Amino acid sequence: MREEVSLLRKRILLSILLLVWIDPSYGQDLIGQWQGTVHSAPPYRVVLKVVKDEDQLRASIIWVDQSPEYYPVAILSSSNSTVKFSVFTDYVVFQGSMNSDQDRISGVWQSGGASVKVDLHRASSQESWLVNSASRMIKVESKVSLEVLDWGGKGPPLVFLSGLGNTAHIFDTFAPKFAPEYHVFGVTRRGFGFSSSPAPIPGNYSADQLGDDVLRVIDVLGLKKPVLAGHSIAGEELSSIGSRYPDRIAGLIYLDAGYPYALYPVGTGDPRLDAMEVQKHLSEYLSAQPGVDRGRVIAGLLSEVPLLQAGLERDERADELMPSGLGKHVGSPVAEAIHAGERKYTHLEVPILAIFANPHNPTNYFPRLPKASTAKLVALDQARTDAQVEAFRQLKSARVIVLPNASHYIFSSNEQEVEKAMKEFLSAVNEPKH
């Protein structure tokens, strides 16, 4: 089952189904938490959660024994009490019926070619299998609200931000380790989970817009100089806030999140960010008139192209090692908008803890490849991460920790090491100043 959940984590980054609205006209009877055991070999527990927000119903499913993450669910419920839901475009399909008391759904669960009967019952808060956390929706701008979790605690504020494709619930088992010494929160960014999903255009998902969302949550909660801890793509939100509003925070923690979208490696560059820069200057060149202004644009292009070429050559070497027949990549519109909204951050002076997996555990990234190809891909990945490690080490305010062969979900694969490093950092930045 762990392999199944690992596959689901990867699929969430590729799936165009980020979240599905349920028609409220026939879904009201589903609001609440449903849970039951799938009696496969081995059996595993699942929770279906349906909530209402601004007259819309949304649903997620949680494999509670394998991961705290909430995965998006598409639900169809007819007036005659039949219930059908699917996960990741029919990767998992359930079809059943609700009893007259509306407290039990009985049906068939199909996954991986196997079919088993499953009963889901409506669970009270006392019966819940989920980690106990308060959840609320906070409006960050017109028609955009974010799901914010509160795991409790009475101390200085600590706010967790999830990676791309995840929700704040990914920290449901890790974040409570910091309470009660700290008051611990989690934020699900726009476009994911139960948070609002505005149109997937770069302006709605730029790095600074996502950073502004977090600042708005901080304001509404009344948090004074919180520490922000972000995983993966959340590194751009950390850097957006840290570079523009350093006085608003006590420190930043990058959980395998210190990649080019968080800190641009000036020496080696990044092909995505460099290509975006070249694209911008090419547009300027095509519309410029001969003279000093066009000369300025040309000079900029000539300085940028060699760095882009070096990055493209690295990508080319990596692509040559990947198997053929992978098919066309179909990314989610929201994920593409987030990538399009990345920018170059180069200057950070706030206290920083940057924890890297280097090299990443290859079994999570390069399955079913020949050993020689895997070794070369690992070397390329390590060289890329080395450049980021060095970029952070150049920051006077940063402490850098490297954990070999860790997973990208470093707070899960190396939980104790990450917890220890974070608590030492939190203690230092929250120490009273005399």
List the SSEs and their pairings:
Layout: H1 2-14, E1 21-22, E2 32-38, E3 44-53, E4 56-63, E5 71-77, E6 82-87, E7 92-98, E8 104-111, E9 114-122, E10 134-141, E11 144-152, E12 157-161, E13 183-187, H2 207-221, E14 227-231, H3 234-244, E15 251-255, H4 271-287, H5 292-321, H6 333-340, E16 352-357, H7 371-393, E17 398-403, H8 410-413, H9 415-429
Parallel strand pairs: 12-13, 12-14, 14-15, 15-16, 16-17
Antiparallel strand pairs: 1-4, 2-3, 2-9, 3-4, 4-5, 5-6, 6-7, 7-8, 8-9, 10-11, 11-13
Mean pLDDT: 86
Which residues sit in consecutive blocks of at least 5 with pLDDT less than 50?
A: 1-26, 326-330
- CATH third-tier fold name of the largest domain: Rossmann fold
Structural class: alpha+beta
Order of helices and strands: HEEEEEEEEEEEEEHEHEHHHEHEHH
Number of domains: 3
- Based on CA inertia axes, which overall geometry fits? globular
- Examine the secondary-structure arrangement and name the CATH architecture of the largest domain: 3-Layer(aba) Sandwich
Q: How far is the N terminus from the C terminus? A: 52 Å
SS strand fraction: 25-35%
Output the CATH homologous superfamily of the largest domain.
Answer: Alpha/Beta hydrolase fold, catalytic domain
CATH class of the largest domain: Alpha Beta
Compute the number of helices: 9
User: C-alpha Rg, in Å?
Assistant: 23 Å
- Largest beta-sheet characterization: 8 strands, antiparallel, barrel
- Helix fraction? 25-40%
* Strand segment count: 17
Major beta sheet, strand line-up: 2-3-4-5-6-7-8-9
